[in-house]
Amino acid sequence: MSNQVKVKFRRSAALAVAAGITVIGAVPLAAESLWFLLVLLIPLAIAVWAWRAGTDVSERGFTVRALFGSRSFQWAAVDGLVTSDGTVYARLANGHLVPLDAVRPSDVPRVIKASGQPLDSDQTADTDATDGAGADTDDDHEDTPQPAK
Fold first, then answer.
1. 77-119 pLDDT, tens per residue?
2. What distance lies between CA 91 and its chain's CA centroid?
3. Nearest-CA neighbor of 90 among 64, 67, 70?
């Protein structure tokens, strides 16, 4: 039996707390008329969404959870991870992009580690060191830190 680690990415708990406070604030409206009970549904739905929605990552694959459902994918069906405008997407073999809810671009190394795959940055560092071995380089630029890609 393997010790499979599941990493859960969720939205901030502050959303659920804010929705709970809104429910408390809307209770006096419900006391005025039964029609105002519908107003309570909105913050309740936001609270449940904030608590439930997110992405669960394991060695087998990942599951994207929403308010009323979830979709699971195996890592074999994923070609890569793509970041765009602060959102992380899983690019599937069929070309579709699946947004990974509550995963930030800074969380991508944690997603890769939870998947059981090695980070490509280790391999890239090795190839960069061998690619420039025969080329003329300026010594002034060797120690200059490069921005992260």
1. 999 999 999 999 999 999 999 999 999 999 999 999 999 887 7
2. 13
3. 64
As a whole number of angstroms, the distance between CA 49 and CA 2 comes to: 31
pLDDT tens track for 43-75: 889 988 988 999 999 999 999 999 899 999 999
Edge-to-edge strands of the sheet including 78-84? Answer: 78-84, 87-92, 97-99
Beta-carbon contacts of residue 3 (< 8 Å; ≥ 6 apart): none
pLDDT per residue as tens digits for the range 118-131:
776 544 444 444 44
* Tokens encoding 62: 């990942």
| φ and ψ of 89, to 5 deg | -120, 150
- Helix and strand totals (H; E) in the chain: 4, 7
What pTM was estimated for this model as a whole? 0.68
Asked if 56 and 63 touch (Cβ cutoff 8 Å), the reply is: yes
- Provide the residue type at 18 as one letter: A
Structure tokens that stand for 70 in this block? 């979830």
Residue type, 89: Y
